[in-house]
């Protein structure tokens, strides 16, 4: 891969996904795009770049998907799910007692382990949620990972990572070497393709937003913009859950840390400025709706 090809890919990825690669990440692009080059029937990354420069929007979309597919596993990092069980849900059950409804958004749902972990956590609450309407929306930039999430089918390796054996037996059915989560759990999660760089106001407002391990790939201005729009998509007493390496501190005052709860934030009441046009980057035809 030549330096000009690398710079072209860096700019393309930042424009279309927010991924902000440093100058020394050539190995990451090569590891993700060389298999895609073979799949597309071209000789290497250079030829892939030439096709994109020639206007191949389908290859642009495939490149973005290949570079933004991130690792995930059930109950990843544990602490956010402890917050969900011990702090978020008890508070919301009191605050929403009159309307008996809660909306949850997994803003980087990937292959489904996070939204299904939340669904299992809710099912484990049993009769405490009788009569409640709980909505889980899982979004992701990649249609490919969303399709896997919808299927709810995972390998033996995937279900062994973070998933307690009692929940595996309770909520999954084995089929050969694969496991599929129950239809009831699959029915609890709605899937939508979405690019966080674009306007997401059409999703409505949420009581809980999980936006973990995605903002670390964005530059500071993009993070600030997204935080502002997340604040406007949240109820005034809602909860924002970030990844262990992410924070609002020093970036924005629209959220404030929840006392003694790492990675948990609440709206501060500060007004977030609306970005012009409600979007950071123009959409392209092949990626509309992301």
UniProtKB/TrEMBL annotation:
Pfam families: CheR (PF01739), CheR_N (PF03705)
Limits of the CheR-type methyltransferase domain: 1-258
GO biological process: methylation
Listed transmembrane segments: none
EC primary class: transferase
UniProt cross-references to InterPro entries, sorted A to Z: Bact_Chemotaxis_MeTrfase, CheR_C, CheR_MeTrfase, CheR_N, CheR_N_sf, SAM-dependent_MTases_sf
EC code: 2.1.1.80
GO molecular function: protein-glutamate O-methyltransferase activity
Alphabetic keyword roster: Methyltransferase, S-adenosyl-L-methionine, Transferase
Catalytic activity: L-glutamyl-[protein] + S-adenosyl-L-methionine = [protein]-L-glutamate 5-O-methyl ester + S-adenosyl-L-homocysteine
Family annotation (SMART domains): MeTrc (SM00138)
UniProt-recorded name of the protein: protein-glutamate O-methyltransferase
Source organism (scientific name): Bradyrhizobium australiense
Taxonomy of the source species: Bacteria, Pseudomonadati, Pseudomonadota, Alphaproteobacteria, Hyphomicrobiales
